[in-house]
Amino acid sequence: MLDISKITTEKRNDNTKNIDIVSTCEILRMINNEDKQVPLAVEQAIDQIAKVVEVVTDAFRHDGRLFYIGAGTSGRLGVLDASEIPPTFGVGNNKVIGIIAGGDIALRIAVEGAEDSKEEAAEALKKYQLNKNDVVIGIAASGRTPYAIGGLEYANIMGAKTGCITTSHDSEIAKIAKHPIEAITGAEPLTGSTRMKSGTAQKLILNMITTASMVKLGKVYENFMIDLQMTNLKLVSRAKTIVTEITGVDIGTAEKYLSKYKSVKHAIFAILSNIEDKKEIEDTLQEYKGNIRESLKNI
Question: What are 47's strand-pairing partners?
Fold first, then answer.
């Protein structure tokens, strides 16, 4: 029989023992007070997160991919982060991949038993022909989810880089991952409900990993997303704002350059460099791996 009594996220929270008999506002205050501890726990893991960012960035530079693998809330958060990367940073759908126990149906409907199979995790990764250039991050609040652990064990065998995100102290998954991230958020407001503090911590860390990696890859200029895809009216408007803010041109000029180059990055580089030829712009940016600052310094 599985003994969960020693798992950090299964501990009982003394601060919320009376949550079922207090007023609505007091319920919310209890939850909010617990939530305030989450960013502090993440702060304690910054050095670990930084190591993972370096590993992920290096993998991207060598045509590697980032995989998230997990079950339940952890799996859903991984899929969420992965799905937001292509429109935000202009990368392909196969660069950051989220895998959840039970398959995509588990995104909407809980498939609780699926988390218990290590073999299914390995099979899921096999379909992507995992290799040594890839990174696999197992997400497991408890640190003992067999599905996430099985994914990392298979990744280690295949020579891929491995990491994990857990909110439990001294966990099994942290021992298996080559680059563990441990943000110890403590007992949940509702005992064992890791969709709460643990899930919030995981979301913050996932944001940090992908955002910092993309910044280091030159997909951000100042604090603007210069590789965003202009796929709806909001993003078209944002693209115009980015070009005007960075270059100082008016909206009409920004529209002209965006219409010509079909790319925020290329429009910005054309204006700042005074280079109009599309091929020359493309060749220069490619030479410096899409980094505008480096490209401008070397023309």
Answer: none
Residue identified by tokens 């563990």 is: 180
In degrees, to the nearest 5, what angle opens at C-alpha 294 toward C-alphas 288 and 299? 85
What residues of the chain score a pLDDT lower than 70? 1-3, 5
Q: In the chain, where are the structural domains located?
A: 8-216, 220-297
Strands (E) across 215-291 are located at 220-221, 224-225
Q: Side chain identity at 1, as an amino acid letter?
A: M
pLDDT tens digits, one per residue of 193-244:
999 999 999 999 999 999 999 999 999 999 999 999 999 999 999 999 999 9
Residue identified by tokens 């899409």 is 290
Query: CA 213 to CA 60: how far, in whole Å?
Result: 9
Q: What is the DSSP letter of 31?
A: H
State the CATH class of domain 8-216.
alpha beta
Beta strands 220-221 and 224-225 are: antiparallel
Burial class for 86, CB neighbours closer than 10 Å (0-12, 13-18, 19+): middle
Distance (Å, whole) CA 75 – CA 99? 7
Residue 283 is inside which H or E element, if any? Answer: helix 278-287
Catalytic residue IDs: 84, 115
Architecture of domain 220-297: Orthogonal Bundle (1.10)
The DSSP 8-state label assigned to residue 163 in this structure reads E
Where would I find the H helices in the chain?
24-35, 38-44, 46-61, 72-89, 118-126, 146-157, 172-176, 197-216, 233-247, 251-261, 264-273, 278-287, 292-297
